[in-house]
Amino acid sequence: MSADELRTRGNDFFKKSMFHNAIDSYTKSLELSVSALTLANRAQAHLKLAHFESAYADADAAVANDEVYAKGRYRRAMAALKLGLVERARRDCEKLLKDDPKNKEFLKLADEIKSAKRVSRVQLHHVNKCEMIRSNTPLMEIAIEQNEFLPEEPKPETSEKKYELPPPATTASQFLVDYDAMKTRDPEYFGKYLLSLDAKRIPDITGAFLEGDMLSAIIRGLQSVQSKVPSEDLAERLVAVSMSPQFEVAVMFLEESEKRDLEAMFRLFEKEKEDFLRQRYL
């Protein structure tokens, strides 16, 4: 069967609410030809199954494949909202409404975003390692609490004296929530947080979400702590990040100044690690 025929077959399964079968057909279609339409369709099937991380990853890949494809951006916003990533959902929704201000679905999404707040941590006990094309992990149903989003309540004005690092993330969604909370703070917080992660898990927990801005934040964070920790710890994290499935795309967006900072950091490492990281990042 052709990619188009497999996508049509997936659509037929979707209409019958046979979402696992639909995902299987979409995956086979993507093995033959990657398209924003098929990725967005698979994202919608994942949304129906409450596989929100996988839905986000597919929708994100759809947007990367075709930035003007509204359904991909809309489904990415839906998945982000379900994961408690309200600011990300808001940015996508604003873009959608800018292009189509009278769309009822987009307006409804905007209302949902207004009445939701970001959760402090997302507790998901199933992680579907969703690569752009195929995952070897069987799809599973997961139970999602329905009270993830609560009405906004006025908060007393307090000045934050010290920011406490969250526990090390063990899932992609937890990492993304923590990243969003730290990306505008002193880079040293994120650097210390990165060092608290199990390096072997970094490719998995950054895999679906690694992008240029996040990679830049990782570099700034590690640079801010480079004088306070063993150089091998820094090298281990940089190697792990470079193994992320989205790294090849993210590294293309590094600024020349960031590459110079990396070069200075690489000189701290043993020759073998330095050569490897130069090949990956520079």
Describe this structure in words.
- The structure is a single chain.
- By secondary structure, the protein is mostly helical.
- It is 60% helix and 0% strand.
- It contains 15 helices and no strands.
- It has helices spanning 3-15, 19-32, 36-48, 52-65, 70-82, 86-99, 104-114, 172-182, 187-196, 202-207, 212-224, 231-242, 247-250, 256-266, 271-281.
- The model is unreliable at 118-161 (pLDDT under 50).
- InterPro entries: RPAP3 (IPR051966), RPAP3-like_C (IPR025986), TPR-like_helical_dom_sf (IPR011990), TPR_rpt (IPR019734).
- Residues 169-259 form the RNA-polymerase II-associated protein 3-like C-terminal domain.
Topology summary:
Elements: H1 3-15, H2 19-32, H3 36-48, H4 52-65, H5 70-82, H6 86-99, H7 104-114, H8 172-182, H9 187-196, H10 202-207, H11 212-224, H12 231-242, H13 247-250, H14 256-266, H15 271-281
Helix pairs in contact: 1-2, 2-3, 3-4, 3-5, 4-5, 5-6, 6-7, 9-11, 11-14, 12-15, 14-15
Looking at this protein, list some descriptive labels.
282 residues; mainly alpha; 15 helices; 60% helix; globular; RPAP3; RNA polymerase II-associated protein 3
Summarize this, please?
The protein is mostly helical and 282 residues long.
The total beta strand count reads 0
Distance between the termini: 41 Å
Which residues form runs of ≥5 with pLDDT under 50? 118-161
Query: What's the number of helices?
Result: 15
Radius of gyration: 20 Å
What percent of the residues sit in helical stretches (DSSP H or I)?
55-70%
The averaged pLDDT comes out at 82
Domain RNA-polymerase II-associated protein 3-like C-terminal: 169-259
Protein name: RNA polymerase II-associated protein 3
Keywords: Repeat, TPR repeat
GO cellular component, one term: protein folding chaperone complex
